[in-house]
Amino acid sequence: MNPFENVPTPSTAEELIDLAFRRARRAGRGSLTSDLKRIEIIRSILCDRLLRIVRSYPRIERIPAFYRELLDVLVGEAALRKALYRVKWCADVVDKLAHEYRAKIRGAQKVNQRLQFLRSFYGRVSSLLGEIEGELDLLREASVKLRKLPSINPELFTIVVSGYTNVGKSSLVRVCSSAKPRVESYPFTTQEIIVGHGKHRGVPFQIIDTPGLLDRPLSERNRIELQAILALKHLPSVIVFLIDPSQPCGYPNVNHINLYSEIKHHFGDRPIHLAVSPKDLDDEGR
């Protein structure tokens, strides 16, 4: 299952500041009690929201290798770790500042002193949130990408469909499973891994539609192609390599054969079947 499916989309730094300060205003102002309550409200809201982001992520070293490598391709493991560390750091410093300024306000002799300390606390908290604005933006983008990752059942027999772009992989997956990947007449329609489920003679299986690959070195593959490589590396019980000799994808057959040979070389420890894409494959062709 997708270990990131419950990761929330965090608020921006500006949204967090606005929420905390708006709630704090409800406590009133002028009295010692209201000033202390304002600080506690800001501390509570910001620390809770920031730590909730950090705790929503699973321990990266404990997630399955497929998802960990996919995380690295789509977001960057090091960048995600740094962002989470910085968000936790910010929560810890806000908590420390709240304790510090509560003590200062309690010790203030005049109302104006309390007001100055309160303003100083607001300013330092605002600066802190501004320092992690980039990290929060990264986590917002990451949450959208990671929640969309497919849920893979490691217990099921798994068919990974691979091959050049526009050879009929998505059409094949549509007619033999529950998945409904987008099918178009132009190349590179599939840009992410799509999982479908079905049964053969009463035995359940999952079949995976992968983005199209081109015949080129691994170092030259883009992020979309690398998703297909990771599926081939980690998921298959069997690989189906699909070709279409009519060449609608615009690449000669020799390129298909070269790609097939490369996949067989790297992933030959699993059964690999070379299949020819049938003509006019649609939902009625089951």
Give the secondary structure arrangement, pairings included:
Elements: H1 13-25, H2 32-56, H3 65-74, H4 77-107, H5 111-131, H6 133-147, E1 157-163, H7 169-176, E2 194-200, E3 203-209, H8 223-234, E4 238-243, H9 253-267, E5 272-276
Parallel strand pairs: 1-3, 1-4, 4-5
Antiparallel strand pairs: 2-3
Main beta sheet, described?
5 strands, mixed
CATH uppermost class of the largest domain: Mainly Alpha
Low-confidence stretches: 183-189, 280-286
Portion of residues within helices: 40-55%
Structural class from helices and strands? Answer: alpha/beta
Overall number of strands: 5
Secondary structure tally, helices? 9
- Note the overall shape: elongated
- Along the chain, the helix and strand elements come as HHHHHHEHEEHEHE
CATH architecture of the largest domain: Up-down Bundle
Strand content: 5-15%
pLDDT average, as an integer? Answer: 88
In which order are the strands of the major sheet placed?
2-3-1-4-5
Number of domains in the coordinates?
2
| CATH fold-level assignment of the largest domain | Four Helix Bundle (Hemerythrin (Met), subunit A)
End-to-end CA span: 28 Å
Cα-based radius of gyration, to the nearest Å: 27 Å
Please characterize this protein's 3D structure.
With 286 residues, this protein is an alpha/beta fold. The protein has 2 domains: 13-147, Four Helix Bundle (Hemerythrin (Met), subunit A), CATH 1.20.120.1190; 157-276, P-loop containing nucleotide triphosphate hydrolases (Rossmann fold, 3-Layer(aba) Sandwich), CATH 3.40.50. Helix content is 52%, strand content 11%. The protein has 9 helices and 5 strands; from the N terminus they run ααααααβαββαβαβ. The protein has helices at residues 13-25, 32-56, 65-74, 77-107, 111-131, 133-147, 169-176, 223-234, 253-267, and strands at 157-163, 194-200, 203-209, 238-243, 272-276. The longest helix has 31 residues, at 77-107.
